[in-house]
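task queued by scheduler; priority normal; single chain, no ligands, no partner chains; default sampling; output format set to structure tokens
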Amino acid sequence: MALAYPPRRALLIGCALFASLFHSWVATADIVGFEGNSLYSQGSSGQYYNGDLGNNTSNTQGWSNSGVHFSNAYTFDSQYNYSYWSGFSYSRVNAGTVAGFQNQYAARPGLGSGGSEHYAVVYNSFSGDAVVTFGAQVQLASIDITNTAYTYYSMLQGDQFSKKFGGDSGNDPDFFKLQIQGFRNNVTTGTVDFFLADFRFENNAQDYIVDQWTRVNLSNLGAIDSLKFALTSSDNGQFGMNTPAYFAMDRIEFSAVPEPSSIALLGTVAVGWWIRRQRR
């Protein structure tokens, strides 16, 4: 019985087939761009959703986009008719040049990454760090990050609660840092730091406050099932961080990580192909 291929060559072809199948499985990227969300509140500078369901009740369910869950805690105090929120909101506010707390839902560039209409605004406050949860293990590629208009102008000019970064002399070594931490099965896989503002350079001309969307590489976090976001600043007081604890994010890019059983199935297909070639 003649072989279609020499055994060694057939084995190599089978391995190549497995590699090709595996690569095609994991190479398809998903992107969360925050488009498609439809529940909004109307603010003075545009529309956003911060967890308010419009019925004067608290809500800690969070929300989802493209199968990815974003933590959110919205609290309504009926006694004082007052509400507050933390975690993730989504926004289509385009007032990127307006300073102040009333414009807390605006990204500094005015639009989403690449000029899109929607993006997320993150506020880290009373409920702890903001958390993104994926439905399964994924391999992250990148995420787009920028400052909100509120935080940007607070650092640039100072306000009644926060200092002007660099101080009057411009020499103060101020910073505003975002820490992105990956988790798999509740165990950390690594951390990526991104400075939303950095005034620690010896040459003041190098100091900066991020005002455009910036792509942050997250591939070093490996396979993860959740992300945690935390903010730190050089400007702190008796009650914690003085710098407004906001940032904006868009375009989370990731690929699915196959389950072991799925990998085994691909291997079985490749081996089966090799055996069939041997029998011909």
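post-processing summary
- The longest strand covers residues 130-146.
- The chain has two domains: 7-24+262-279, 29-258.
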